[in-house]
Write a structure and sequence with these properties.
Blueprint (H helix, E strand, L loop, with lengths): L7 E5 L6 H15 L5 E5 L5 H7 L6 E4 L16 H6 L4 E4 L2 H5 L4 H13 L3 E6 L12 H13 L6 E4 L14 H17 L7 E3 L8 H4 L5 E4 L6 H12 L5
Parallel strand pairs: 1-2, 1-8, 2-3, 3-4, 4-5, 5-6, 6-7
Helix pairs in contact: 1-9
Length: 248
């Protein structure tokens, strides 16, 4: 990892935070971002995206959407287009999250979402991960097969890749061993270099908390934190534990 490589810290708020707690969290993030060189990013519930953008205005905090429609526009009840997301000032779209996989969505759909986001100038955070722990963590053909699809079908590389083992996500996820995460990330980066995507940052997410954040953070280009960062206090704690590992 070179000295020029930007580091990241962010969170997918899912459908967990209400309006008040979302805005309080973002206010804390804006304050933290004034003295922390990392790129902060958050994906609030869709209904709060517009207000979230306003709340962080003038700060380096990025706001994104937890997905977008595969359609540009039209009679698609309940869907939100990438252009609409861009119109309210959001800067990114997250696609491929494990919980969308569980809901029955496919890699083809995620690629189509990413393509729509790219069309309107939104950045894409693309999630990828294995369903079960790999017997050999150095073997990442499962991840690189997804990367190969992205390369063939997307006009631009993702802004960030989020490596999130499916088995580590959620309230009942299994805490990962740092050696396993390190091996997977190292092998993934080797594969990315081989296909010319060495510039794409890879953040780690999945059962990140105050007990392992300091250990996991240096292994990736930053952290994609879940419930441990859904409150101002939780976010501050994670930032305090990991900021010492920042590279300048």
């Amino acid at each position: 990892m070179t000295s020029e490589r930007r580091r990241f810290i962010g969170s997918n708020l899912k459908m967990a935070n209400d309006r008040e707690s979302t805005m309080a969290l973002l206010e804390a993030a804006v304050e933290l971002a004034t003295r922390d060189a990392r790129q902060f990013f958050f994906f609030p519930s869709m209904i709060f995206v517009s207000e979230a953008v306003q709340r962080v205005a003038g700060s380096p905090v990025f706001i994104g959407s937890q997905g977008c429609s595969v359609h540009r526009s039209g009679a698609y009840t309940g869907e939100v287009s990438a252009q609409m997301i861009r119109d309210v000032g959001a800067q990114a779209v997250m696609v491929g999250h494990y919980e969308r996989v569980v809901a029955g969505e496919s890699l083809d759909l995620f690629v189509a979402q990413a393509a729509r986001a790219h069309e309107v100038g939104l950045r894409v955070l693309f999630c990828l991960g294995e369903r079960e722990q790999a017997r050999n963590p150095d073997a990442v053909s499962d991840l690189l097969s997804d990367v190969a699809v992205l390369q063939r079908r997307l006009p631009d590389a993702p802004w960030v890749l989020a490596y999130e083992p499916h088995w580590a996500i959620g309230e009942h996820g299994t805490r990962p061993e740092s050696a396993y995460v390190s091996a997977r990330l190292s092998a993934l980066r080797t594969g990315l270099r081989e296909v010319g995507w060495e510039h794409v940052p890879v953040v780690y997410g999945g059962s990140v908390d105050s007990g392992n954040a300091e250990e996991l953070d240096p292994l990736a280009d930053g952290l994609f934190v879940g419930r441990s960062a859904w409150s101002p206090a939780g976010l501050r704690e994670i930032c305090t534990l990991t900021q010492a590992k920042e590279r300048t």
